[in-house]
UniProtKB/TrEMBL annotation:
Residues 159-295 form the AAA+ ATPase domain. GO terms for molecular function: ATP binding; ATP hydrolysis activity. It comes from Pristionchus entomophagus. InterPro entries: AAA+_ATPase, ATPase_AAA_core, ATPase_AAA_CS, MT-severing_AAA_ATPase, P-loop_NTPase. The lineage of its organism: Eukaryota, Metazoa, Ecdysozoa, Nematoda, Chromadorea. It comes from the Eukaryota. Keywords: ATP-binding, Nucleotide-binding. SMART domains: AAA. Belongs to the AAA ATPase family. This is AAA+ ATPase domain-containing protein.
Length: 392
């Protein structure tokens, strides 16, 4: 329950930690910054309750003003702190060195986490149904320069380096990318934007730079897979903060570096909303491939693979299953297959309970239609149309 007392206490704690830091005339320590941020958050969390009370309006104004000043000071402190750390070589105190080491170590850990070392965990290309055009285009981009290097040397055409896969969710973009890496036996770095965003300003840029340094220094063919690239490379806008802008700029610089290098590194990105991407990024993707919903043949192949070991009555063919699931994504079909397999398992369990192991009841069309009607497609027609008109 919010009382004036708790409010004043929280506010004074917030100010106290800030005053201690400011009065020393130095950049606040990292611990103090954390402390101040946490205190400010606790004050901010009780603000809505204050707002509800008219009489406390002026108190609220004071708190807001105080928070604004404190936040600004904290940001300055953080910037100063990072600037100091950036002058890596000139650092002399063991305390600072320790902090730098911990940043370097966490950068290293983050980079190591991006490398998929267990290639066997990736799907096989034959596990990916349909997407014929996408498979061919990716293999052409990755394999042909290795098989026919002389052609690429003679002509002034350089192989594609940056490919964008776009399409509705659950259509196999991530799975396809992993399968391609496994097929060509490339080193596979898979990163999502959250891996690249560090809450410490300056650290995200360094992380991106280090990643490209490592990958480009590598002789082996490598693939960097940047998933959900839209959250990192959205159109720039005037309200964007500096940190975001710097991350984007660094990424653009590194992509250009990749494109002008002689290494065998490919960047494959995936997105559900290509229309939100910054034009500067879009321009860098030499090939944009639409990954759409599976067609009837692909749906048939998916059911055949996923329900290979599930017995169903003879009237339930893969063709029939495909015909009643138009509009379902690959992921929808995976989930539906699980449901069907479980429904069949329940029949088995029921028979076992009454000790009847001789009659095997198989799911019929009606029962399967019932299951399908409870799992409608997750991607709307309207959304698909949006992709199709973007793709053409
Ligand atoms: N064409 C396909 N062939 C085989 N499996 C597929 C296909 N499409 C989807 N799947 C399966 O559906 C699941 C989800 O696929 P995946 O994560 O690759 O989709 P995505 O397009 O990357 O989705 P998102 O846009 O949400 O990231 C995976 O288990 C994948 O194997
Ligand atoms: Mg994905």
């Amino acid at each position: 329950m919010l009382t004036d007392e708790t409010l004043v206490h929280s506010l004074s704690k917030c100010m106290e930690s800030f005053t201690i830091a400011a009065s020393s005339g130095q950049v606040p320590s990292i611990e103090t910054l954390y402390e101040m941020i946490s205190r400010s958050k606790s004050v901010a969390s009780i603000l809505p309750a204050v707002e509800a009370n008219e009489h406390r309006h002026s108190m609220l104004q004071t708190i807001i003003a105080t928070l604004e000043i404190t936040t600004k000071q904290m940001e300055n402190g953080k910037r100063e702190f990072v600037r100091e750390l950036d002058g890596d070589e000139q650092m002399d105190t063991s305390d600072d060195k320790e902090k730098l080491d911990s940043f370097a170590a966490s950068r290293k850990n983050a980079l190591e986490a991006t490398i998929v070392t267990n290639i066997e965990s990736l799907p096989l290309l034959s596990d990916i149904m349909g997407l014929k055009e996408a498979k061919e285009a990716l293999l052409e981009a990755l394999v042909d320069p290795l098989l026919y290097p002389e052609w690429f040397e003679q002509s002034n055409i350089s192989p594609w380096r940056c490919v964008l896969l776009f399409g509705p969710p659950g259509t196999g973009k991530s799975a396809l990318c992993g399968a391609i890496a496994r097929e060509v036996n490339a080193r596979f770095y898979t990163i999502s934007s959250s891996d690249l965003i560090s809450s410490w300003s300056g650290q995200s840029e360094k992380l991106i730079r280090s990643l490209f340094d490592i990958v480009l220094a590598n002789e082996e063919p490598s693939i960097i897979f940047m998933d959900e690239v839209d959250s990192l490379c959205r159109k720039r806008n005037t309200n964007e903060d500096d940190a975001n802008r710097r991350v984007k700029t660094e990424l653009l610089v590194q992509i250009s570096r990749l494109q002008s290098s002689k290494s065998r590194v490919f960047l494959i990105s995936a997105t559900n909303c290509p229309w939100d991407l910054d034009p500067a990024f879009l321009r860098r993707f030499e090939k944009k491939i639409y990954i759409g919903l599976p067609d009837s043949e692909a749906r048939e192949a998916l059911f055949a693979k996923l329900l290979e070991r599930t017995e169903m009555s003879a009237e339930v063919s893969w063709k029939w299953l495909s015909s009643v699931t138009e509009g379902h994504s690959g992921d929808d079909i995976r989930r539906l297959s699980n449901e069907i397999a479980f429904a069949q398992f329940r029949l088995y369990k029921a028979a076992k309970k009454i000790m009847d192991t001789t009659t095997r009841k198989m799911l019929n069309r009606d029962e399967i239609s019932g299951i399908i009607s409870k799992s409608p497609p997750t991607v709307s027609r309207e959304y698909v149309r949006q992709f199709e008109s973007y793709a053409n």
